[in-house]
Model the fold of this input.
Amino acid sequence: MKLVTIIGARPQFIKAAALSREIAKHDKVEEIIVHTGQHFDANMSDIFFEQMDIPKPHYNLNINGLGHGAMTGQMLEKIERVLIKENPDWVVVYGDTNSTIAGALAATKLHKKVAHIEAGLRSFNMKMPEEVNRILTDRISNILFCPTDTAVKNLINEGYGNMDCKVMNSGDIMLDAALFYSKKEQKPNIDLPNEFILATIHRAENTDDLDRLHLIFDALNEISKQIPIILPLHPRTKKIVQQLNVNLINLTIIDPVGYLEMVYMLNRCNLVMTDSGGLQKEAFFFKKPCITLRDETEWVELVESGFNKVVGADTTKIIDAFKFQNNDMNFNVNLYGNGNTAEIILGELQKNN
Ligand code: UDP
Done:
């Protein structure tokens, strides 16, 4: 069986690492990795391949720094060429980026089977480019590997029960990665306090909106009077933050780090504050409460179970969520499978080949 895997962004490298590790156990499965180039900085791309032992991409399309249309269009064109040449049995796409929709669309037009990993997630906010990418990718995929029961329900509500595709809850492949790489954690090259909040901010709805960013940083600044905050931040966002003219108190901004440094900090932090999708779940995997700096989340089961508070960019709500956090949570519930999602997915692809 031959797979072409399309990846281009940080969270996709992490998920692909888990599947590639599983593929390596099977002689009869060949994986061709296509890196679209969406994330290309050394600390957003190369470091993941090195640290996580992801096989070197067979193709690097080097498409980045463009608007959505140009980026997706160029990917579509170049991925099509790769698929014609490689003639795979399956095209595997992850998540909700432009690389995801470009890979799925190129494949489906060539009548290649598409497997969508992390299918069925919905924020119900069509202004998010990710939401558009997810919905369109789901519709043209042949197997939809959902990470949660909620994701399966979303698809059933949209009529997927009557469509010519397979929908299943495979568990979340990020749990596979978290369990495996947590054992390989690496201390980041900074002085890490004994107690701290691990924060990330990267989503366009926050970084492209100075008002929202200001409200978030006002809250972080206030909270950092009580506990230090470590914030890995893309240099582009760091520049925007500098324009805000806020006087950062106990808030340390560092460059983005590799996954092994991230799991080191996840293992030790008191709390996570983030607008990232992946990090909301990782907070749960590492048994830490999470405050989500978005107006909605796809990971509703974390909110329903009380592990995650969604507070948007509202300064008071962020500070209140911090003040009233429950430090006595029981994280021993199974929301995302058993950490064997890669095995389940590969088995299913072989069965349906
Ligand atoms: N991450 C990382 N280094 C960082 C920040 C995040 O390795 O400096 C990891 C994080 O642990 C998670 C993933 O990147 O696994 C999340 O990626 P991102 O926030 O870019 O995307 P999203 O999850 O929102 O799709």
In short: The first strand starts at residue 2 and ends at 7. The chain is about 45% helix and 15% strand. The mean pLDDT is 96.
